[in-house]
């Protein structure tokens, strides 16, 4: 199945048509700047522009930087506060004139990583925690290869604030931390998460995962920690995969 996968971020909105069976991009990746302020209406119009430039007429699925439950946005840690309680799927579908599916960006990136990346060897009988290290910390939890959505473990209370304010990639830049210093901070967070969940494997994605070798020696957790493989394409590929899952669910519901 081919679906237009879109990765909506704070600075850019990126998309491409994806073959969900292979994870292959069937068109060039297109990137448009995220409008500022990134209000719901402005983002919807930019999404429409991206779809039109790609020339796509089929289903669209998006990864979005918030907790999205039943098509409604419930958090806004790294996006405009006007998004809270916005019916994002309804807004995007109305603006585009076609069905649009939306899920948390870390969740969809995790779907891509579990099927086409480092997680493909950890399916049945394992619990996998996928963490993205970027502007914030995103999380996706998988048990027996199935997603438990909207965990948002970057928002755990940590050192008097949220974890992502302490050890995300943007925190590393803000505090001008050397990679070893960042690694020691992130190890504290991993130790806490390990205590809470006891996962079998932790996969690190996002921007900072490219520098995995510069800080991974600081990790003292017993859980196996490995870098992601899908990297920049994970959000786009995973969004398309999420769209396919939703379409199959809708088809099953119709048959009933």
Automatic annotation (TrEMBL):
InterPro entries hit by this protein: ATPase_NBD, ROK
SUPFAM superfamilies: Actin-like ATPase domain
Protein name stated in the entry: ROK family protein
Organism field: Candidatus Avisuccinivibrio stercorigallinarum
